[in-house]
Amino acid sequence: MFFIKTHHITLQRAIQMASAYSLVLMTVSSFSQAAPSFTTKVIDNTFITSANMLAYTEFELSGEPLAEALGLDLDILDPFEKDQPTLFDYVTGIESYEYSEEAMYALNYQSQLGPHLVNGPQNTQRGGTLKSLEKRMASLAKSVAYPVTDIAKNIYPISIPYRSASPEFNQPVNTKIMGQEEIEIFNNAGEIENIVAQIPAFQHDYKTLAWDKKKQERIIEPAAIGGILLKEVMWSQDFLGGMHVISNDEEVEASSSTMDKDGKHALGVSASDGMNGVILTELSLDKMLYLQEQLAFDGHTLGANINPQYNAKKNPIWFPHAIEVNEATKNNRNAIGKLTVKDASSTLRDTWMLLWPLSEYFAYSDQRSANTNQNPAFSATFDGQPFASAPTANTDNNPKNNIALNDGFSLVSNLSNMMFKNIDALHFNNKHQTFVDIFNGKQGNHVTTYDVAYTIVALSIYQRAQDALPVGYASGDSGNLHLNTPQGKRALELINFQAQFIINNLLAKNGLVSDGVTLNGKQDSGQSLDAQFSAIRGLSAAFVATKNEAFRAAARQLYINIDKQLFNKNLGTWAINHKGVYTPWTAAAIASAMREIMLHLKNNEAENNPTLELASLVERYGSWFRAVINGPSITQGMQLSEALSDTGELMINGKSSDSDQDNVTNVTQAGGQYGQANVLAAKVIISQ
Hints:
688 residues; three-stranded antiparallel beta sheet; 18 helices
């Protein structure tokens, strides 16, 4: 499904690179040129679904969208031209962005970390057989004009993911060479060189890319579902946000929702991107069906009824933090067997990690008659073919007559309504005006900085979706339509309360934030990197949503304090007591906070703090990414491996061991008995 692309940059183009982008001279990092004097040791290579997918969403948003927002012409990027036109451009536009996309495929199409789509709720409704799934895949392929024979062999789409696993492969990976392609690149001397890139079997046949079956944690966790649902809907919006001409695969803007019916155009910005988009949308629908039909909990049993008239204060229903799966086999593939609740609590992390993607999906599938600004390409996606449309009861201006159904918009309307009511009624403490970590029949009394900060983010997307404002890559933009819904107004109130609580109750005397606080008690003693950067992320989101300058000022000052007290020049990143402990949660917070600072918090014309100059921020981001994510040498760094082609990695002469010299190697050379998938490790420590 994914192909080697021919890349050729002429000398004239290289000259254009040097002058086309104003940040070229500003992003030259002394860190990138000096020999590393530190190690970034992988302490735990476990794949944590929720943490990985959140980090990769933030990498995606800090990828091409960030580079483009800062002025880069994306056409001059080339995966085989490392650090061109600048280190920052390459890190964001190629590495951050492509790592994000390819990791989603590794989990969804290759890992086997969950029930197969053939045994999911949608295919069960269609007959529950391999033949019924094949028929559906053919229908999806037709909608985007993609040859069904080009879909990767032995693709293993999963309906929902389990909580965690080892990303090490089960068996030797099939590296038999199936083809080759000549690529022209510039060598170190600045001369054009022809390289023959080989195409191994595993690139188009996923049979040998399954993860270690013995090390799966078969727990259904709402945050894990939310993490991959977020990845799916972000990329679905990207892939299906336009249409293409069938005859030449050229991307075009959708001028109407019926444009794909003219025989000349098809869904998707290209045929291959469209194919991924419709598969991802199909997988998302399965997740939402599982949530609506099987996973809701009323304090006693699973499968509680969720409907649009749900009253969270009267009869609360939530998704338990941990549901153990007794995995079954059907159609010779993974299936869900008996489910047992192991942790019945509703956690704030589970809740916001579902609310964010559900809000994105609400906007993506929005068919409300009041939303006159919906993208025609999205309307075409949900007009009955290939995905069902919503009934008038769920799209008119009367929310009181809404009904629970199985089409995409009805599903997400029902679920997002439930999650918003839960975050308000179950997790919001009205007395202290903050969200608390746990609800299990009653509210807990602890507040975690990371989670309340990201709750602001989720609420901001929810408000924008409800009020028909842009989301996805455009979630910081204003719109020419604003529905001013009651739900949107309440979300803004909650955002304001929570941001103020961070400033009043989580900031410590040293100007950094604490990891959390116990209500009517003391602040937590820890001041982790996770807390610092997530607080910036939340305060910036609050500023964008409310336009309250106090939130911007607090976020700016917090970053100044972080950089002054915690940045370690010898490590090229932030650390505590000369040691940086990083997880994907940390990576998500840093990638997002630094993006927010560059877009919304950096110096304006009247401000001149050197720490908040764009040049300094750009240097810090590139330095951190290379030190922690890529690492100083092969087998170090949080990114365990990288996929071939679009990340810059190639297989040459039957071998691929960091051909692009970014310290991240091909999956087959990445450690473990047979190699490791292109995902993030659970924990690394950077130190001298």
